[in-house]
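name: query_chain
kind: protein
chains: 1
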Amino acid sequence: MTTPSNTPSTIKVVPARYPWRTFGAIVALFVLAIVVQSVAFNPRWEWSVFARWFFDPVILEGLAQTLLLTLIGTALSVAFGGLLALARLSSSWLLNSLAWGYIWLFRSLPLIVVLIILYNFSYLYDTLSIGIPFTQISWGSYQTINVLGQFSTAVVGLTLVQSAYTAEIIRGGFLGVDHGQYEAAAALGLPAWRRTVRIILPQALRTILPSGFNEIISLAKGTAMVYVLAMPELFYTIQMIYNRTQEVIPLLMVGAVWYLVITSVLSLIQHLVERWLARSERRSAINQQSPARLAPRQPVLQTQEAAHAPVP
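structure:
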């Protein structure tokens, strides 16, 4: 009598094959090789000119102006855009309408138009006064041409336009927080500003950060538009040099590489900030679970009934 064999049958594992993925990778590498060969070995790119101008002090001064415009424009647009977002979320119809009108206006106008209008503001108004409208009360009056110079016009124009986009990003982040979080925060009896800063804002940052850094990168590249003000930032400086030397392509490559460096650094900062936020969220989740895990167990008392032996 034969017994059935208990040896399990061997299963042959066949790895999954993705022929189209492999084909796409080969085509992409082939195209990349063509681009590298055409750029690196074409003498008309004039890489020697590129190397000569890349760290030139004039270029670095223009780069410093670009970085300064990006830093100040980011800080002011985040501050002003945050106020606009709070106004859009306000229950006041007046604040909501004014903020909506501002966002609608400056999202509709091109940045170059705003910059040119501001730069010619002295044609419309000789002086800028601070006071109460429709009265003779004035606390100060200044010559417009002295207030709106090249740098100040660039900062104001970038801030006006960028704050409109930043406001919508911040508003979207707040709307992305579950409404139950607002109710739970209100139930704690905290003031409104503290509820927003300590409870709602940290949760909204997860939605705000990716789009917000994308706008900062766009702002860094958008500073090239201030060339219409004849301000010596990076792009205008490069324009002035290649208009004099006629070495257009290598100098444009100098600007392109510097803009790549700026955007790469900003992308790295975004990655580090997102990692830090994710780490802090995991740490807070562990801290919330640890009290329940470490809570001492209550001893279970087992009572035994006394047994009474019958008395003879």
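note: The first strand starts at residue 127 and ends at 131.
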